[in-house]
Amino acid sequence: NNPQVINFSPGPTSLPKPVESAIAALFTMPGLTSLATSHRAPEFVELLANTVALCRKVMNIPEDFEVLFTHGGGHGQFAAVPLNLCKNPSDVATYVINGTWSARGAEEASRYCSVKTIDSADPVTGKYQTFPELTEENIDPNSKYLYLCSNETVNGIELFRLPKLPESRKHIPLVVDASSDFSTKPIDWHGDNIGVLFACASKNIGHPGLTMTVIRKDLLGGGKASPLCPGVFNYTTNSEAGNLWNTPATFNIEVVGLLMAWLDKEGGVDACEARSIAKSSALYTVIDASNGFYSTPVSDKALRSRMNVPFNVKGGDDALTNQFLIEAWEQGMVGLRTLTPFGVGDYLRASLYNGVTEAEALTLAAFMKKFAAEHA
Ligand code: PMP
Question: Based on the domain organization, do 315 and 224 belong to the same domain?
Answer without folding.
Answer: no
